Here is the input.
Amino acid sequence: MATLHDTLKDLTADVEDVVRLVADLDATAWQTPTPAPGWTVTDQVAHLTFIFRLAKTAATNPQLFKNIAAAAADDFNGAVNAALVQYNTLPPAELLAAFQAEADDCVRALGAVPENQVVPWLVNPLPPVVLACAGIMELFGHGQDIADALGVRRVPTDRLRHLADFAFLTRDFGYQTRGETPPDGPFRFELTAPSGGTWSIGPADATQVVTGAAHDFCLLVTRRRHPDDLALTAVGDDARHWLGIAQAYRGPAGEGRTPGQFKDLDE
Here is the structure.
């Protein structure tokens, strides 16, 4: 995994990419429905704003974060919807400013956490570099929803390595969400980077292996494309099953996407 400095630098770049997606939209376009049922572009940015505020709070006021997390523990979806209301009624310019401010504050807060110290998070305490990777995962997934809603095709970068590493750490989330028992054996991911190199993540002797394009892999683990539409190959029964349940985020899996849903956009 990369250093905290490098990860935060890439997190900032991903924030800027999302800002560019929406900065020139008029008020009507902000209300464009996205592939996430019931969520508009405004809702997507509102959610990201709340996530960054939450991560900032975890880094700067752990006790307050724990109180917030405890209050949401019994109703995850309700907590997410309540969080949207804090921001999705703002005019677009105010929401975008809030998003940028919370993201900037979060980056500074994570960067100020002492080395080898962890911060509380929704499942377990995390090193700040891992929490920064989680932020990159959120930006990728919700940014993809915005891009799909607007008919924009994003150009992937090697910053996706952070999300691929995060997916390795969170491999078991898909099992846990569905009440399944994760396999004991490790997985290995062999991914082709956008720049053309190869990323090998996991033990060299793992018998469960997923190979393919890193961008497709990131679309898989954020459930922004159906596995049938992705250039990924799995070796081993456990790896093949995992392709159908993979998710790099905690909580409900959501509806995912249907085969061929974005055929015209992806061609």
Observations:
- The mean pLDDT is 94.
